[in-house]
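User: Write out your own:

AI:
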Amino acid sequence: MFLLLAALAVGAPNSAPAAPPAGQGMLYPFDPREKVAKPDLRAIPRLRFLTTVDFPPFNFIDQSGKLSGFHVDLAREICAALDMMERCQIEAAPYAELVTRLDKGEGEVAVAGARITPDLRDSHEFSRVYLRLPARFAARRADAGPQRAPADLGDRPVGVLKGSAHEAMAKAFFPTLSLVGFADRPTMLAALRKGEVKAVFGDALQLSFWLDSKDADNCCDFLGGPYYSSHFLGEGMAAMTAPANPVVAQALDHALIAIARNGRLADLYLRYFPKGL
């Protein structure tokens, strides 16, 4: 519901799909070798992260009743990188209240997958993008072709969601494909499982969960990709802070670069998205 999709700009909409920069894969579009100075945080009594409970696997309540998820563990890693574990707090709030609570000073950072809009860019600070969510093809294993690439699909039907950003992206990047529009995702995925379409093109995160589900019945796998486009899919996931906290925004960038460099960001990614994106 609150997904932010993809982040790496690819130029004009009709340009060829861009591959991720070497060494960075699909996680983040920044260079972990970059230097961002760690600011003096002694004047900050606590670093409160605001998140939600209804956005698994990013934020959810686990079986023991504890707040869990990718964003929760990311907040802890950021606090550890900043040597602020004793002053680190993670609080749940309704999604609609996150911006208001930040503005009222009831938290320093929001990590909940909020879409980065021009208005929010003007009124708030954002960290580096820490997760990009690309588009991908999924195909029946029997229909994937010898090269396991979209070119193998030829003129066979490929499912997309009608009116979606992924449909527009597929038309721009793969103009020779024979696209079939579906009104909803379950119907589209059922058609793929039955072989009524030979592949689908959509959000890699949602496809990865479906591929591992009982509903998929081990029928299918990713085909080619991943494919990124900020033009069609937005910037990516980033932490948001109030504009009155430039020191916190700098601290977030320092920490994200640090945990990318030491491998902890990759560890988190593999923990929550073992199928890959």
Q: What stands out?
A: The longest helix spans residues 246-261. The CA atoms of residues 9 and 231 lie 7 Å apart. The radius of gyration is 20 Å.
